[in-house]
Amino acid sequence: MRARRDRQTTGYPAAPETSGPLLEVADLTTHFRTGRGMVRAVDGVSFSLDRGRTLGVVGESGSGKTVLSRSIMGLLPRTNVVRSGEVRFAGRELTALTEAELRDIWGVEIGMVFQDPMTSLNPVMRVGRQITESLRHHLGVDRAEGRRRAVALLDSVGIPEPEQRLGDFPHQLSGGMRQRVTIAVALACGPRLLMADEPTTALDVTVQAQILDLLARQQRERYMAMVLVTHDLGVVAGRTDEIAVMYAGKIVEKAPTRTLFSDMKMPYTEALLKSIPKLADPSHTTLSVIPGRPPDLVNLPTGCRFYPRCPYAQQRCRDEEPPLQEATTPGHVYRCWFPVGTPEGRDALDRNRREGRLDAGAPVAPAGA
Amino acid sequence: MAGSGTAQLRTGDALLRVEHLVVNFHAGPRQRVHAVSDVSFDVLEGETLGLVGESGCGKSTTGRAVMQLPRPTSGSVRFAGQELTALKRGALRETRPQMQMIFQDPISSLNPRRRVVDIVAEPLAIWGRGGGAERDAKVREVFDAVGLDVDAAGDRRPYQFSGGQCQRISIARSLMLDPRLLICDEPVSALDVSVQAQILNLLADTKKRYGLTMIFIAHDLAVVKNVSDRVAVMYLGKLCEVAGADDLYEHPTHPYTNALLASIPEPDPQVRPSTNGAGLAGEIPSPVSPPSGCRFRTRCPRAQDRCAAEEPQMRQMRPDHFVACHFPVESPVSFGATRSTASNQ
Ligand SMILES: Nc1ncnc2c1ncn2[C@@H]1O[C@H](COP(=O)(O)OP(=O)(O)O)[C@@H](O)[C@H]1O
Ligand SMILES: Nc1ncnc2c1ncn2[C@@H]1O[C@H](COP(=O)(O)OP(=O)(O)O)[C@@H](O)[C@H]1O
Ligand code: SF4
Ligand code: SF4
Ligand SMILES: [Mg+2]
Ligand SMILES: [Mg+2]
Fold first, then answer.
1. What is the extent of the structural domain holding A279?
2. What was the ipTM of the complex prediction?
3. A70 CB near a chain B CB, below 8 Å?
4. Domains of chain B by residue range
5. CATH architecture entry for B1-80+180-192+213-267+276-345
6. A249 lines ligand 1 (CB under 6 A)
7. Which residues crowd ion ligand 5, with CB under 5 Å?
8. Do A282 and B246 touch (CB under 8 A)?
9. Could you tell me what percent of chain A has a pLDDT over 90?
10. Quick check: is A297 in a domain?
11. Distance A193 CA to ligand 6 centre (A)
């Protein structure tokens, strides 16, 4: 507590205080007990994140991105949750903390921004108070100082006439402005990590670009780490250091951003990227589709979870789950028996094409089936 | 426009020709929402017109006004040679089967209590068309057209399907009356990219198979480019720019079109997003009291005094490329993202 206060009054932290990564997630698993059976929403996820760096987490809806970020923070339902694994943040094991202890971390050391700003804003509290509340409670600043900082924060997140806005209620603001307020609240106590879960999904492209710029600028200035969760590969492409691709509760590929796009190993990453319409392509370009849908997290397929939809799939994929393997670029890992761009991968794809069993766009016809 | 004018209208027969379309809504005492203000466009038989712009700019209102839902405040809507705004209720109803609309939220636009086979067949019953066998055959045909198996899926209810499958069901239903014009209002905006690709390809196939004419409304420029022959960019109730899909993206001339293109997050780390605040600043103003002159002027980096005083009119910049702006962008992309030369793989 004391250390945090000092850090605040002297401005933003300038250098890392601890050595080693800021956030280390090891073999994190989060399952939900339901009437249908166990929903394996997050299944053995590991990664680490250094100070000042940004990790993008991408995947189709239902792949476990939100559950992963909430599980890291310890923001899960109280019942019918089975969680295991480790979450080390700035040297502390978060999974061992009580809810009361976590409250000193939420919003203070770890800021949070969600898709719907109204989930983090209090609809009946004025904007100014939502910011000063947390400053006064966590950092012990007085009323005048709280107000001064709130104005500065609103100004820094691009809200015009910040003094006037202090008295507004959230519903009086546009969606984009509300998201800016959420960001101001999240940044108020100078967090070292920002968890942003689809922060721009509900916004127009022009406002999305503004908010992503804002997050990038704040992150740089504050030397803050960020986990940016999104279903949109475009959003993470230009704005992250590293990307983790999730599929059915697992990280199936993780790489430095440029490497992921230039040298992807997972057929799923490739398929996801190919299915997006590109501005550079002429109109009426036929899109390559991923057949079928992600698996039911209660009844997962054996072997590779992407097997039923994968154009590279072979018998082995159905029988054996591929382990996480290292690629040549440091920090690049993937789970696949027949990786993209390798001789094995090319052979597998050719074989399926020759047999006409799973060419892109064809209806599901799993190889080996 | 954010301006007005009709230079973009083509001579000859269009399946749909909309001129000087105005839609106002009442919003409290003495307040009017100027949702669509003097918009003109045409769609040729077999063509797909993309209508693109930020939310609240009047895209859905335009689509609905074409269908006379509700009738527009003023302006002309000519469909297949008939002036729809002048038709009496009964005569208007007769034209309905020829124009169908599908919506963004596929699940809630389908009746949750009915079997999907009945939902799809319903239009024939409503219009009293065909006998039992004929109806069954048509249902089978449209299920097949959208890639669903009527025997396996027909008895289930909408909630038992994913968003993408519900959109297939909506499309199937819209095909039952053999429409000539299909208005798609953000049909893929709520879907995952992988499902979006399936539905976009399906719409392209369906269009070919049934010889449809389409208006495709969306806010995603890359999606609009993919499906459209011609694109109209809309801002705050006005049209800004109208051009062939490929031409518009190669030579964006209106400052707003450029801003939209610069905002697109491209799935390519080589395309650096603007991090210097050079993208479009501010937000779309309220349509209750839109800015004078050019409605885009409050956010336009090129705005001059003239833009506040005088509304720009549509004029031709290049062959079949129209823009409503006093100071159009001569060389493409003057601000926003730095775009490395587009690399086609
Ligand atoms: N409280 C819960 N109880 C049961 N299942 C849940 C719960 N929360 C999330 N899930 C399930 O976990 C899976 C992953 O969800 P989520 O993390 O929200 O996906 P994403 O954010 O990638 O779209 C989904 O199948 C979802 O239905
Ligand atoms: N029935 C209505 N009553 C009042 N205002 C409306 C109504 N329908 C739409 N509007 C307003 O008209 C404007 C255009 O809306 P809309 O056509 O839905 O835009 P878009 O589809 O481009 O997002 C918006 O400001 C919207 O709030
Ligand atoms: S090739 Fe096999 S292991 Fe690799 S993604 Fe496809 S199904 Fe999975
Ligand atoms: S230059 Fe003037 S007329 Fe053209 S878009 Fe900008 S404000 Fe409108
Ligand atoms: Mg989510
Ligand atoms: Mg709309």
1. 264-354
2. 0.86
3. no
4. 1-80+180-192+213-267+276-345
5. 3-Layer(aba) Sandwich (3.40)
6. no
7. A 65-66
8. yes
9. 76
10. yes
11. 36
- pLDDT band at residue A4 under the 50/70/90 scheme: very low
**Record: contact A205-B264, CB cut-off 8 A:** yes
Tokens for A334? 């993937």
Maximal C-alpha separation, chain A: 74
pLDDT tens per residue, range B221-265: 999 999 999 999 999 999 999 999 999 999 999 999 999 998 888
Q: Residue A148 falls within a domain, yes or no?
A: no
Query: Is the CB of A176 inside a 6 Å radius of any atom of ligand 1?
Result: no
Point out the ligand nearest to the CA of residue B64: 2
Q: Tell me, using a 6 A CB cutoff, whether residue A297 lines ligand 1.
A: yes
Domains contained in chain A, number: 1
Of ligand 2's listed atoms, the one at least distance from the Cα of B61 is 17
